Amino acid sequence: MNHCCINCFQDEWMIDHIKTKGEQIDECSFCGAEDVMAIELTEFKSLVTPVINLYTAITNFYPMEILKEQDNSENMIWDKLTHDWGIFDDPSVGESILSSIYEDDPRDGTFYDFMNDAVDIEDDWYEEFSTKANLWSDFCYEIRHVNRFAPKTFANEIIDKIIEANQIAVEVGTILYRARTQQENKPYTTNKMGPPPPKDAVFGRLNPQGIAYLYLSDNPETCVSEIRPDTTSEVSIGTFKIVRECRFVELTSEYIGSPFKWGKSFPMIYRYKNFLNEFGKDISKPINPKSSYLDYLPTQFVSEYIKQKGYDGIVFKSSSGSGLNYTLFNHKMAKCIDVRFTTEIKANYSFKLKTDDVI
Ligand SMILES: [Zn+2]
Asked: Cα of 93 to ligand 1 centre, how many Å?
Protein backbone atom coordinates (compact mmCIF):
# COMPACT_ATOMS: atom_id res chain seq x y z
CA MET A 1 0.00 0.00 0.00
CA ASN A 2 2.55 2.58 -1.04
CA HIS A 3 1.11 4.15 -4.21
CA CYS A 4 -1.91 6.32 -5.02
CA CYS A 5 -3.16 6.55 -8.60
CA ILE A 6 -4.70 9.09 -11.01
CA ASN A 7 -8.20 7.74 -10.30
CA CYS A 8 -7.90 8.62 -6.61
CA PHE A 9 -7.89 12.33 -7.51
CA GLN A 10 -9.91 14.92 -9.31
CA ASP A 11 -7.30 17.71 -9.05
CA GLU A 12 -6.02 18.33 -12.59
CA TRP A 13 -2.51 19.36 -11.51
CA MET A 14 -2.10 16.13 -9.49
CA ILE A 15 -3.45 13.97 -12.32
CA ASP A 16 -1.02 15.57 -14.81
CA HIS A 17 1.82 15.22 -12.32
CA ILE A 18 1.13 11.49 -11.85
CA LYS A 19 0.83 10.96 -15.60
CA THR A 20 4.23 12.56 -16.25
CA LYS A 21 6.21 11.62 -13.13
CA GLY A 22 4.49 8.41 -12.00
CA GLU A 23 4.80 4.73 -12.83
CA GLN A 24 2.39 2.04 -13.97
CA ILE A 25 0.99 -0.20 -11.21
CA ASP A 26 -1.18 -3.33 -11.39
CA GLU A 27 -3.79 -2.26 -8.88
CA CYS A 28 -4.33 0.82 -6.69
CA SER A 29 -4.83 -0.22 -3.08
CA PHE A 30 -6.99 2.80 -2.36
CA CYS A 31 -9.49 3.02 -5.21
CA GLY A 32 -9.02 -0.42 -6.79
CA ALA A 33 -8.22 0.86 -10.30
CA GLU A 34 -6.13 -1.55 -12.37
CA ASP A 35 -3.17 -0.89 -14.68
CA VAL A 36 -2.98 2.78 -13.84
CA MET A 37 -0.33 5.45 -13.37
CA ALA A 38 0.53 6.15 -9.73
CA ILE A 39 3.04 7.87 -7.44
CA GLU A 40 4.54 6.80 -4.16
CA LEU A 41 2.74 7.89 -1.01
CA THR A 42 5.86 9.62 0.31
CA GLU A 43 5.79 11.89 -2.72
CA PHE A 44 2.10 12.64 -2.31
CA LYS A 45 2.75 13.41 1.34
CA SER A 46 5.32 16.09 0.50
CA LEU A 47 2.89 17.62 -2.02
CA VAL A 48 -0.18 17.61 0.22
CA THR A 49 1.45 18.72 3.47
CA PRO A 50 1.45 22.47 2.60
CA VAL A 51 -2.30 22.22 1.90
CA ILE A 52 -2.94 20.37 5.13
CA ASN A 53 -0.92 23.01 7.00
CA LEU A 54 -3.66 25.50 6.18
CA TYR A 55 -5.99 23.65 8.52
CA THR A 56 -6.09 23.37 12.29
CA ALA A 57 -8.16 21.04 14.46
CA ILE A 58 -11.23 23.03 15.53
CA THR A 59 -10.79 21.92 19.13
CA ASN A 60 -7.79 24.27 19.19
CA PHE A 61 -9.71 27.45 18.42
CA TYR A 62 -13.52 27.05 18.27
CA PRO A 63 -15.27 28.32 21.40
CA MET A 64 -16.71 25.51 23.51
CA GLU A 65 -20.35 26.44 22.85
CA ILE A 66 -19.86 26.08 19.10
CA LEU A 67 -17.96 22.83 19.50
CA LYS A 68 -20.89 21.43 21.46
CA GLU A 69 -23.64 22.62 19.13
CA GLN A 70 -22.20 22.05 15.68
CA ASP A 71 -22.15 18.72 13.86
CA ASN A 72 -18.63 18.57 12.47
CA SER A 73 -18.58 14.93 11.48
CA GLU A 74 -18.22 15.83 7.78
CA ASN A 75 -15.53 18.44 8.33
CA MET A 76 -12.64 16.05 8.66
CA ILE A 77 -9.47 16.87 6.75
CA TRP A 78 -10.33 14.50 3.86
CA ASP A 79 -13.78 16.14 3.55
CA LYS A 80 -12.21 19.61 3.46
CA LEU A 81 -9.57 18.65 0.90
CA THR A 82 -12.30 17.15 -1.27
CA HIS A 83 -14.90 19.92 -0.94
CA ASP A 84 -12.69 23.02 -0.57
CA TRP A 85 -10.13 22.09 -3.20
CA GLY A 86 -11.43 19.14 -5.20
CA ILE A 87 -8.30 17.11 -4.43
CA PHE A 88 -9.77 13.63 -3.91
CA ASP A 89 -12.30 12.02 -6.16
CA ASP A 90 -14.07 10.63 -3.11
CA PRO A 91 -13.54 11.67 0.55
CA SER A 92 -13.44 8.04 1.71
CA VAL A 93 -10.51 7.36 -0.64
CA GLY A 94 -8.90 10.52 0.78
CA GLU A 95 -9.40 9.18 4.29
CA SER A 96 -7.66 5.90 3.42
CA ILE A 97 -4.73 7.68 1.77
CA LEU A 98 -4.25 10.20 4.59
CA SER A 99 -4.55 7.49 7.22
CA SER A 100 -1.79 5.51 5.51
CA ILE A 101 0.40 8.59 5.40
CA TYR A 102 -0.14 10.06 8.82
CA GLU A 103 -1.12 7.23 11.13
CA ASP A 104 1.70 6.52 13.55
CA ASP A 105 3.59 9.52 12.23
CA PRO A 106 4.17 11.75 15.22
CA ARG A 107 4.30 15.52 14.93
CA ASP A 108 5.78 17.36 17.90
CA GLY A 109 5.58 14.19 19.92
CA THR A 110 1.83 13.80 19.45
CA PHE A 111 -0.25 12.20 16.74
CA TYR A 112 -1.54 14.44 14.04
CA ASP A 113 -4.57 15.96 15.69
CA PHE A 114 -6.20 16.71 12.36
CA MET A 115 -6.69 12.99 11.75
CA ASN A 116 -8.96 12.70 14.78
CA ASP A 117 -10.77 16.05 14.85
CA ALA A 118 -12.77 18.15 12.45
CA VAL A 119 -10.65 20.96 10.98
CA ASP A 120 -11.09 24.50 9.71
CA ILE A 121 -8.96 27.41 8.50
CA GLU A 122 -8.20 29.43 11.60
CA ASP A 123 -7.47 32.76 9.86
CA ASP A 124 -10.72 32.66 7.88
CA TRP A 125 -12.67 31.86 10.99
CA TYR A 126 -11.22 34.83 12.85
CA GLU A 127 -11.75 37.16 9.94
CA GLU A 128 -15.40 36.17 9.75
CA PHE A 129 -16.25 36.05 13.42
CA SER A 130 -13.96 38.47 15.19
CA THR A 131 -12.56 41.94 14.77
CA LYS A 132 -8.98 40.74 14.73
CA ALA A 133 -7.10 42.82 12.18
CA ASN A 134 -6.33 41.12 8.90
CA LEU A 135 -3.46 41.54 6.46
CA TRP A 136 -5.24 44.16 4.37
CA SER A 137 -6.31 46.37 7.28
CA ASP A 138 -2.82 46.10 8.83
CA PHE A 139 -1.34 47.24 5.51
CA CYS A 140 -3.84 50.11 5.17
CA TYR A 141 -2.97 51.39 8.62
CA GLU A 142 0.76 51.15 8.05
CA ILE A 143 0.75 52.99 4.74
CA ARG A 144 -1.52 55.75 6.02
CA HIS A 145 0.11 56.33 9.37
CA VAL A 146 3.47 54.56 9.73
CA ASN A 147 5.49 53.86 6.54
CA ARG A 148 4.26 55.55 3.38
CA PHE A 149 6.57 54.42 0.56
CA ALA A 150 8.11 51.18 1.82
CA PRO A 151 5.54 49.43 3.99
CA LYS A 152 6.76 46.32 5.77
CA THR A 153 3.34 44.65 5.61
CA PHE A 154 3.44 44.40 1.80
CA ALA A 155 4.75 40.92 0.92
CA ASN A 156 6.23 41.49 -2.55
CA GLU A 157 7.19 37.92 -3.37
CA ILE A 158 3.84 36.41 -2.50
CA ILE A 159 1.90 39.21 -4.22
CA ASP A 160 4.06 38.70 -7.34
CA LYS A 161 3.05 35.05 -7.56
CA ILE A 162 -0.65 35.76 -7.17
CA ILE A 163 -0.81 38.59 -9.68
CA GLU A 164 1.17 36.51 -12.16
CA ALA A 165 -1.41 33.72 -11.81
CA ASN A 166 -4.24 36.21 -12.28
CA GLN A 167 -2.96 37.91 -15.41
CA ILE A 168 -5.05 37.93 -18.56
CA ALA A 169 -4.22 39.03 -22.07
CA VAL A 170 -6.55 41.54 -23.71
CA GLU A 171 -6.31 41.36 -27.46
CA VAL A 172 -5.98 44.12 -30.01
CA GLY A 173 -9.45 45.13 -31.20
CA THR A 174 -11.20 44.55 -27.84
CA ILE A 175 -13.92 47.17 -27.36
CA LEU A 176 -14.34 49.05 -24.07
CA TYR A 177 -16.21 52.22 -23.06
CA ARG A 178 -15.72 55.45 -21.14
CA ALA A 179 -18.34 58.00 -20.04
CA ARG A 180 -18.12 61.74 -19.32
CA THR A 181 -20.97 64.09 -18.41
CA GLN A 182 -21.42 66.70 -21.12
CA GLN A 183 -23.27 69.98 -21.67
CA GLU A 184 -26.68 69.72 -23.33
CA ASN A 185 -26.42 68.54 -26.92
CA LYS A 186 -22.65 69.00 -26.84
CA PRO A 187 -21.02 65.60 -26.88
CA TYR A 188 -17.26 65.43 -26.57
CA THR A 189 -15.23 64.63 -29.63
CA THR A 190 -13.18 61.44 -29.73
CA ASN A 191 -9.96 63.26 -28.86
CA LYS A 192 -11.56 64.63 -25.65
CA MET A 193 -12.70 61.27 -24.33
CA GLY A 194 -9.34 60.22 -22.94
CA PRO A 195 -8.01 60.90 -19.44
CA PRO A 196 -7.18 64.47 -18.35
CA PRO A 197 -3.60 65.76 -18.77
CA PRO A 198 -1.49 64.57 -15.81
CA LYS A 199 -1.32 68.02 -14.20
CA ASP A 200 -5.13 68.06 -13.96
CA ALA A 201 -5.53 64.45 -12.77
CA VAL A 202 -7.18 64.35 -9.38
CA PHE A 203 -6.60 61.30 -7.22
CA GLY A 204 -8.84 58.27 -7.61
CA ARG A 205 -9.03 54.83 -6.08
CA LEU A 206 -6.23 53.65 -8.35
CA ASN A 207 -4.37 56.74 -9.53
CA PRO A 208 -2.44 59.14 -7.32
CA GLN A 209 -2.90 62.89 -7.79
CA GLY A 210 -1.04 64.06 -10.91
CA ILE A 211 -0.91 60.63 -12.58
CA ALA A 212 -3.73 59.98 -15.05
CA TYR A 213 -5.09 56.48 -15.78
CA LEU A 214 -7.74 55.61 -18.34
CA TYR A 215 -10.83 54.17 -16.63
CA LEU A 216 -12.88 51.99 -19.01
CA SER A 217 -15.72 49.47 -18.67
CA ASP A 218 -16.78 46.50 -20.77
CA ASN A 219 -20.29 47.82 -21.50
CA PRO A 220 -21.86 51.32 -21.88
CA GLU A 221 -24.29 50.89 -18.95
CA THR A 222 -21.47 50.13 -16.53
CA CYS A 223 -19.32 53.09 -17.55
CA VAL A 224 -22.34 55.44 -17.21
CA SER A 225 -23.23 54.04 -13.78
CA GLU A 226 -19.61 54.45 -12.68
CA ILE A 227 -19.76 58.25 -13.07
CA ARG A 228 -23.14 58.41 -11.25
CA PRO A 229 -24.80 61.09 -13.38
CA ASP A 230 -28.01 62.70 -12.12
CA THR A 231 -31.15 62.16 -14.18
CA THR A 232 -30.93 65.58 -15.83
CA SER A 233 -27.41 64.96 -17.13
CA GLU A 234 -26.33 64.05 -20.60
CA VAL A 235 -23.39 61.72 -20.92
CA SER A 236 -20.94 61.20 -23.77
CA ILE A 237 -20.02 57.54 -24.20
CA GLY A 238 -16.76 56.93 -26.01
CA THR A 239 -16.09 53.58 -27.66
CA PHE A 240 -12.45 52.59 -27.19
CA LYS A 241 -10.53 49.97 -29.11
CA ILE A 242 -7.46 48.30 -27.63
CA VAL A 243 -4.62 49.01 -30.09
CA ARG A 244 -1.79 47.02 -28.50
CA GLU A 245 -2.00 43.66 -26.79
CA CYS A 246 -2.23 44.27 -23.04
CA ARG A 247 -1.66 42.20 -19.92
CA PHE A 248 -4.14 42.98 -17.17
CA VAL A 249 -4.25 41.69 -13.61
CA GLU A 250 -7.76 40.37 -13.08
CA LEU A 251 -9.14 40.76 -9.56
CA THR A 252 -12.65 39.51 -10.17
CA SER A 253 -12.54 36.06 -8.67
CA GLU A 254 -10.86 34.17 -5.89
CA TYR A 255 -8.74 32.26 -8.33
CA ILE A 256 -6.04 30.09 -6.84
CA GLY A 257 -6.57 26.98 -8.93
CA SER A 258 -4.89 23.80 -7.83
CA PRO A 259 -3.25 24.23 -4.41
CA PHE A 260 -0.42 21.91 -5.50
CA LYS A 261 1.04 24.27 -8.06
CA TRP A 262 2.11 26.70 -5.30
CA GLY A 263 4.28 24.17 -3.47
CA LYS A 264 5.37 25.15 0.03
CA SER A 265 4.18 28.73 -0.45
CA PHE A 266 0.57 27.60 -0.50
CA PRO A 267 -0.51 28.66 3.03
CA MET A 268 0.98 32.14 2.45
CA ILE A 269 -0.61 32.33 -1.00
CA TYR A 270 -3.93 31.53 0.57
CA ARG A 271 -3.57 34.29 3.17
CA TYR A 272 -2.55 36.87 0.58
CA LYS A 273 -5.37 35.87 -1.74
CA ASN A 274 -7.59 37.47 0.89
CA PHE A 275 -5.33 40.55 0.83
CA LEU A 276 -5.89 40.98 -2.90
CA ASN A 277 -9.60 40.23 -2.54
CA GLU A 278 -9.86 43.10 -0.06
CA PHE A 279 -7.96 45.32 -2.49
CA GLY A 280 -10.42 44.26 -5.25
CA LYS A 281 -13.36 45.16 -3.03
CA ASP A 282 -11.91 48.54 -2.06
CA ILE A 283 -11.24 49.62 -5.65
CA SER A 284 -14.84 48.73 -6.56
CA LYS A 285 -16.29 51.12 -3.97
CA PRO A 286 -17.57 54.46 -5.23
CA ILE A 287 -15.40 57.51 -4.62
CA ASN A 288 -16.66 59.46 -1.65
CA PRO A 289 -16.18 63.19 -2.29
CA LYS A 290 -15.63 63.73 1.44
CA SER A 291 -12.77 61.22 1.58
CA SER A 292 -9.28 62.35 2.38
CA TYR A 293 -6.42 61.43 0.05
CA LEU A 294 -5.17 59.18 2.87
CA ASP A 295 -8.14 56.87 2.28
CA TYR A 296 -6.93 55.94 -1.19
CA LEU A 297 -3.22 55.51 -0.50
CA PRO A 298 -3.40 51.70 0.01
CA THR A 299 -5.21 51.00 -3.28
CA GLN A 300 -2.98 53.48 -5.13
CA PHE A 301 0.14 51.80 -3.73
CA VAL A 302 -0.97 48.34 -4.90
CA SER A 303 -1.97 49.54 -8.36
CA GLU A 304 1.33 51.40 -8.72
CA TYR A 305 3.12 48.20 -7.72
CA ILE A 306 1.23 46.21 -10.36
CA LYS A 307 2.16 48.87 -12.93
CA GLN A 308 5.82 48.75 -11.91
CA LYS A 309 5.77 44.96 -12.47
CA GLY A 310 5.04 45.60 -16.14
CA TYR A 311 1.31 44.98 -16.30
CA ASP A 312 -0.85 47.34 -18.37
CA GLY A 313 -3.84 47.59 -16.08
CA ILE A 314 -6.29 46.06 -13.63
CA VAL A 315 -9.70 44.44 -14.23
CA PHE A 316 -12.22 44.50 -11.39
CA LYS A 317 -15.96 44.21 -10.81
CA SER A 318 -18.04 47.35 -10.93
CA SER A 319 -19.98 47.97 -7.73
CA SER A 320 -22.58 50.08 -9.54
CA GLY A 321 -23.04 48.31 -12.88
CA SER A 322 -23.23 44.71 -13.97
CA GLY A 323 -19.97 44.68 -15.88
CA LEU A 324 -16.25 44.87 -15.39
CA ASN A 325 -13.99 47.89 -15.13
CA TYR A 326 -10.70 48.00 -16.99
CA THR A 327 -8.20 50.56 -15.73
CA LEU A 328 -5.35 51.19 -18.17
CA PHE A 329 -2.16 52.72 -16.80
CA ASN A 330 -1.14 54.01 -20.23
CA HIS A 331 -3.98 55.57 -22.20
CA LYS A 332 -2.10 55.06 -25.47
CA MET A 333 -2.93 51.36 -25.36
CA ALA A 334 -6.54 52.25 -26.35
CA LYS A 335 -7.99 54.64 -28.91
CA CYS A 336 -11.40 56.32 -28.88
CA ILE A 337 -13.09 55.46 -32.18
CA ASP A 338 -16.53 57.03 -31.72
CA VAL A 339 -18.77 58.90 -29.30
CA ARG A 340 -22.53 58.68 -28.72
CA PHE A 341 -24.54 60.43 -26.06
CA THR A 342 -27.35 59.58 -23.71
CA THR A 343 -30.70 61.02 -22.79
CA GLU A 344 -33.39 60.07 -20.30
CA ILE A 345 -31.04 58.69 -17.69
CA LYS A 346 -33.08 56.89 -15.06
CA ALA A 347 -32.30 56.56 -11.38
CA ASN A 348 -30.88 53.08 -12.01
CA TYR A 349 -28.59 54.62 -14.68
CA SER A 350 -30.40 53.02 -17.62
CA PHE A 351 -30.67 55.43 -20.55
CA LYS A 352 -31.57 55.93 -24.16
CA LEU A 353 -29.06 56.97 -26.80
CA LYS A 354 -29.92 60.38 -28.21
CA THR A 355 -28.38 59.87 -31.63
CA ASP A 356 -27.65 56.90 -33.79
CA ASP A 357 -25.09 59.05 -35.50
CA VAL A 358 -21.70 58.62 -34.03
CA ILE A 359 -19.44 61.59 -33.45
ZN1 LIG B 1 -6.35 4.97 -6.97
From this structure: 8
Domain that holds residue 58: 3-129
pTM for this one? 0.80
The pLDDT tens digits of the residues spanning 76-116 come to: 999 999 999 999 999 999 999 998 888 766 554 445 667 88
Q: How far is the CA of 106 from the centre of ligand 1 (A)?
A: 25
Question: If we measure between CA atoms, which residue out of 283, 308, 311 comes closest to residue 297?
Answer: 283
Distance 297 CA to ligand 1 centre (A): 51
What's the gap in Å between 77 CA and the centre of ligand 1?
18
Burial class (CB in 10 A: 0-12, 13-18, 19+), 307: buried
Total count of domains within the chain: 2
Residues 6+ apart with CB under 8 A from 173: 241, 242
Q: Are residues 187 and 60 in the same domain?
A: no
Q: Is residue 278 part of a domain?
A: yes
Residue 193 sits in the same domain as residue 276: yes
Looking at the structure, tell me whether residues 200 and 289 fall in a common domain. yes
